[in-house]
Amino acid sequence: MKNSRLSRRVLLGTTAVTLLALPVSLASANADALLGKSRHSVVAFGAYNGAVDGVRAPFDGGIGNNSMAVSPDEKIAVATNSQVGRLVVLDLRSGRRIAEIKGHVTPRSILFSPDGKDFLVSDSTLGVVDRISRKTFRVTERLPLGAGVFGTAQTRDGGRLYANNQAADTLTVVDLANGRPEHVVTGFSEPRQGVQLSPAGDKLYVTNFDGGRDSRITVLDTRPDRPEETPVKLKEITGFNQVRGLSISRDGTRLYAANSGDHTVSIVDTGSGDTLAKVPVGQSPYGAALSPDETVLLSGNLKGNSLTAVEPGSGDVIGTVTGVKGPRQAISFSADSRTAWVLNEDLTVAQVDVRALKVTRTLG
């Protein structure tokens, strides 16, 4: 398995270009007016474009995931599924799909910049992280990080990006202000979507899927007062079974991680690395999303077509949300913790009343 993964690393998307234009389909007159009804295509410039002889041939298409980011002003959401190769933009107020952005192959992770003016999208087949303008939906910057680039996390000020590479078993640290990779940290094993900074920004938690059997989480020192230094590995936390999404408590003392292999969510003491509890949830949990007020943790149960609500302190299950389809890691909360948005497998979004634990409407 490892040798086959190593052989695929030769497919690297290493072309850096700016002001790329992705194909955009628009679902509103206002959006049409904004973009002048133009249609564009990404120019490959010799890079692998995800097709062989005109047939779709993604680099790591056997790995499926979804991602969604809500803008800081909570007006729009950008969502994707790696199996469909496109992004959709939803108006969270009207519930309408306002745009569709084509041109990616296996999009993996989406992050909004802190000011909400653009968002970052990683694509493991193209081997890039794209910065896309919220105003025009055009790619304004392309960072070539290599085939297999997957999950991403950024510092609170948006100055630094951490990008997993599941094929190369690495983590790349990027200076976003200058678009320059600063460090490449080695020694991981299939780091996929799960990568999370502690709220204080001093530690980074990286999941190692490792075929699912020996999943673990690596903890790195990322203290803000030493950004020029390569992140140092502090410890590894074990005891997971096909580890997926994760969250860190506001004080940094608790880690919550979904285990799709045994249908549980782990609650871990980050200081000792001890597992305090394994909470049974729905079938094949991928998400472990902690609300901003830390009163509820939602697991996205892929095969159970449900969310399980867990009380983070005690680990007690407090309810189940139905009416969702194929939920994974893509779960976002409103700032007041009253609403959760959950991405369905068809790229619609379920809006959930967190207190009532009910889907109130489906967007898109």
UniProtKB/TrEMBL annotation:
Pfam families, A to Z: YNCE
Keyword Protein biosynthesis part of the UniProt annotation: no
Cofactor names: Cu cation
Signal peptide: 1-29
Keywords, in A-Z order: Signal
Domain YNCE-like beta-propeller, chain residue ranges per copy: 253-343
NCBIfam families: beta_rpt_yvtn (TIGR02276)
PANTHER family given in the database record: DIHYDRO-HEME D1 DEHYDROGENASE (PTHR47197:SF3), PROTEIN NIRF (PTHR47197)
Protein's name according to its UniProt entry: YncE family protein
Lineage of producing organism: Bacteria, Bacillati, Actinomycetota, Actinomycetes, Kitasatosporales
